[in-house]
Write a structure and sequence with these properties.
heterodimer, A: 362 residues, abc type-2 transporter like fold, five-stranded mixed sheet, 66% helix, B: 309 residues, alpha/beta, Rossmann fold, Alpha-Beta Plaits, six-stranded mixed sheet, 33% helix, elongated, binds adenosine-5'-diphosphate, binds magnesium ion
């Protein structure tokens, strides 16, 4: 016998495919974001990220290290006179990325101990992350080449980045989080308000199909939709902006759990507003601040403390942070922390959502 | 007398302070078409949705097929079919897909093809629901209501908003249901519909039943019987008619003669043969549910558009 959930899921899929508008927006919105931001980031131009390097080392290894940086094509190296005072230089020239290669660089590596390079950055610049990643990547490469991964070169103050990244890669997790949020919240709010208003819920409530089964079906469907958006993002990113697929298992779990959480939020929103328009406005009111403060577009670590406080109560923040942790920094432990928070919020939202959702008047 | 399938005793439903259903009692018998006729806001939907287990009564006792609506909702739900008021289903599924969908939702279902034939929708089966006319949509609703082969079918205002032709097509479907042995509970605010389709009916107003019997018995009890109307009759005609001893009334230019028995009409025609009696036409009119409603409430039932229904 056919299952009710499976049948509802199939019907939903059919209707989605037939609803050109819904399909368009599901795919177009994230693509739109990625294209806009891809254009903004890449208009800065490959190779135009300036890295000021003060090389205090005279050995061959520092030279070859800089050659490697050059070869990434992302970094334009400007040499700084070894006698210059770094602080003065940075201030006078408004430098955003400044690297110091210590005098003992070649020697330390030759002696098989660790050479620490110093990377000073203006973290309020979006390019800071990119530069850090490029340097980190080259360093990593070096460490791997020099005797199987022992850490010969360390970066002083900077994230170690494991993947081979482009500019847009940093932006990608935020777009995925944002898309999951808007998709799930608006879809769930919309479909619940509409089915209530048009009487489809009333008809469904005359059958043995339960509200709970229906919600499972729609939550599963939402997951499918979110992954369709993610696929759209990745495909466009790869074709036009040279993005690298960085979907890890952890990121997949994060997307599923985050999607469920936002689905639960949508369920709650549609219930507390009397009619479709109010519910829609409520969904906008909830998602709009998260769009900007959830860390999808801007890194908030340099913003005022109160703003960071606000961000810390936004579920999207944890989704974005978790996705960045795993997709960019390869730090699954940190991602797991964010996943834990998301999971708890998801359970709370879904339980409340199931509890408050109604199909009939009284 | 045949078996009782629905039993309602002292049903009351309050919405806050407002009493929408005010202590009604009735029963529905197996195989009959039972109608609840009343204007908007009378409490029809509230009453049927309580029987359908979609709303909870404030007090009273309701049994459907012997099951109590308070405790045995699942037993009831499996055995009844429901066309809700303002029925709607998935716009972007075809007629056939919609019926298939609801078939799966119930544990037992009759084949979709059989249902399509039953409501005469076979040539529309691949159309999207959203592209159907109002009458066809209602027929899809009836097909879906039949999908679990129910013993009782509730049709809440199945013809509201339909044009007269579509309305009559729905009537045919209702008659078919009766022929198949289904018990049908129908709500409507169309007098003629209730009169044509119902075996028995209740007239509902302000949450109460103001009449409850077969259409014929209700009309007999509350109606004025049969009238013979002589339009634009002159005074000579009036004089002659009065002389017959029948109950005669002048109304504007017309004369209304109450038909006491079968011979009354004969008498009227006979006296009007007098060459000095002038009139335009003679019509005979039986009183209708409309007249009953007017008499009992002092109002007419108005339909959606404000025109007389
Ligand atoms: N959920 C509800 N809450 C409050 N009042 C309601 C509700 N449903 C119906 N009513 C009121 O109860 C009365 C009867 O409504 P209803 O049963 O829909 O009548 P009908 O179907 O005969 O038009 C109306 O006055 C209506 O406004
Ligand atoms: Mg109604």
């Amino acid at each position: 016998m056919k299952s009710r959930i499976g049948t509802d899921l199939m019907a939903t899929a059919k209707m989605f495919v037939r609803n050109k508008g819904a399909m368009f927006w599901t795919l177009a919105f994230p693509i739109f974001l990625i294209v806009i931001f891809g254009a903004i980031f890449s208009s800065t131009g490959t190779g135009s990220y300036t890295l000021n390097v003060q090389n205090l080392d005279h050995g061959p290894l520092s030279q070859s290290f800089m050659d490697s940086l050059n070869q990434t094509g992302v970094v334009k190296i400007v040499m700084v006179d070894p006698s210059a005072d770094p602080d003065t230089y940075i201030k006078d020239n408004s430098v955003t990325n400044f690297m110091i290669i210590p005098g003992n660089f070649t020697q330390n590596i030759a002696l098989n101990s660790t050479a620490t390079i110093e990377l000073r950055q203006d973290r309020t610049q979006s390019a800071a992350n990119i530069m850090a990643s490029v340097v980190g990547q080259v360093v990593n490469h070096y460490n791997l080449n020099l005797s199987g991964g022992k850490e010969h070169i360390a970066i002083h103050s900077g994230s170690i980045v494991t993947n081979n990244l482009t500019f847009l890669d940093f932006f990608l997790p935020g777009v995925i989080g944002l898309t999951a949020m808007t998709n799930c919240v608006f879809y769930m709010q919309g479909v619940q308000s509409r089915y209530f208003a048009t009487g489809i819920f009333r008809k469904l409530s005359t059958t043995p199909f339960t509200r709970f089964e229906w919600l499972i079906s729609r939550a599963l469907w939402q997951t499918v939709v979110v992954f369709m958006s993610v696929a759209a993002i990745l495909i466009v990113g790869m074709l036009f902006f040279n993005v690298h697929i960085t979907l890890t298992w952890m990121s997949i779990v994060l997307i599923i759990v985050g999607g469920l959480m936002f689905t639960g939020l949508g369920m709650i929103l549609s219930r507390f507003a009397k009619d479709e328009e109010t519910a829609n406005a409520a969904a906008s009111a909830v998602t709009f601040p998260m769009m900007f403060l959830g860390g999808s577009f801007f890194d908030l670590s340099a913003s005022p403390e109160w703003l960071q406080m606000v961000a810390s109560i936004m579920p999207l923040t944890y989704m974005n942070n978790g996705l960045r942790d795993t997709m960019i920094y390869g730090n699954d432990a940190a991602a797991l922390f964010n996943l834990g928070i998301l999971a708890v919020v998801a359970v709370v939202f879904v339980v409340i959502g199931v509890y408050v959702s109604k199909w009939t008047d009284d | 007398m045949s078996e009782t399938v629905i039993e309602v005793k002292n049903l009351i439903k309050n919405y806050g302070d407002f009493r929408a259903v005010d202590g009604i009692s009735f029963e529905v018998r197996k195989g009959e078409v039972f109608s609840i006729l009343g204007p908007n806001g009378a409490g029809k939907t509230t009453t049927v949705e309580i029987m359908e287990c979609l709303r909870k009564p404030s007090s009273g006792e309701v049994k459907v097929l012997g099951f109590d609506i308070a405790h045995q909702q699942n037993d009831i739900r499996k055995r009844v079919g429901i066309l809700p008021q303002d029925f709607n289903t998935y716009d972007l599924l075809t007629v056939k897909e919609n019926i298939d969908y609801f078939g799966v939702m119930f544990d037992r279902s009759i084949p979709t093809q059989e249902l399509l034939d039953a409501v005469n929708l076979n040539d529309k089966k691949d159309e999207y629901f959203k592209n159907l006319s109002g009458g066809l949509k209602q027929r899809v609703g009836v097909a879906i209501a039949m999908v679990n082969d129910p013993d009782i079918i509730f049709l809440d205002e199945p013809t509201t908003g339909l044009d007269p032709k579509a309305r009559r097509e729905v009537w045919e479907v209702v008659k078919d249901l009766k022929r198949k042995g289904k018990t049908v509970i129908l709500t409507t605010h169309y007098m003629e519909e209730a009169e044509v389709l119902s075996d028995r009916l209740a007239i509902m107003n302000g949450g109460r039943f103001i009449a409850y019997d077969t259409p014929r018995a209700i009309i007999k009890e509350h109606g004025y019987g049969t009238l013979c109307i002589i339009r634009s009759a002159n005074d000579k005609a009036m004089q002659l008619l009065t002389a017959t001893g029948l109950s005669v009334k002048r109304k504007d230019g017309d004369v209304e003669v109450h038909m006491d028995d079968k011979s009354s009409l004969h008498k009227v025609v006979e006296v009007l043969q007098d060459p000095d009696a002038y009139y335009d036409e003679i019509t005979v009119k039986r009183s209708s549910l409309e007249d009953v409603f007017l008499k009992l409430t002092g109002k007419r039932i108005e339909d959606d558009t404000g025109a007389k229904a």
